[in-house]
Amino acid sequence: MAEGILKSKIGTLPIEVDSAGTSSYHEGDSPDARAVLTSRKHHVNISGQVSRPFVVEDFDAFDVIYAMDQSNRDNILKLARTDADKQKVKLIVNELYPNSDGEVPDPYFGGDSGFEDVYKLLDQATDRIIEKYKDGK
């Protein structure tokens, strides 16, 4: 959902957005139907996204790499080649609550509102990302 939400906000800003998983378990899969429905409710279309695994070359392709939780962050950091690679990896919730090291909850375990709650959290975090980018931070 974070990819779709952020893409819906960048407009003409020169920002490239992509998402990747830290395992190949879902490689080639479409997003969960509940994520698609929740996003669509907010006028964001993620139905065309396809899961791919995070690869070492992503450190070269992107200036910032956001992880949803500590486990994913740790998996990404294991692939880092240098300290510069490591510095690119951030927890997305820290955009809302700096230095909190908070995590995006797994929507699969959030009951009926899980995907909506995650959408709202990511919507706020991506607003902050856009604001920071526009401010040159």
Q: Can you give a write-up of this model?
A:
The protein contains six helices and two strands. It is mainly alpha-helical and 137 residues long. The chain has one domain: Rossmann fold. A two-stranded parallel sheet has the order 1-2. Helix 1 packs parallel to helix 6.
Overall number of domains: 1
Strand order of the largest sheet: 1-2
Please give the CATH class. Alpha Beta
**Strand share of the residues?**
under 5%
Order of helices and strands: HHHEHHEH
* Total count of strands: 2
| Overall pLDDT metric | 94
- Backbone shape: globular
User: What is the architecture at the second tier of CATH?
Assistant: 3-Layer(aba) Sandwich
CATH topology, by name, is Rossmann fold
**CATH superfamily assignment?**
Response regulator
- Count, helices: 6
CA-atom Rg in angstroms: 14 Å
User: What is the straight-line distance between the termini?
Assistant: 24 Å
Contiguous runs where pLDDT drops below 50 for at least 5 residues: none
Largest sheet: 2 strands, parallel
Structural class, from helix and strand content?
A: mainly alpha
Percent of residues in helices comes to 40-55%
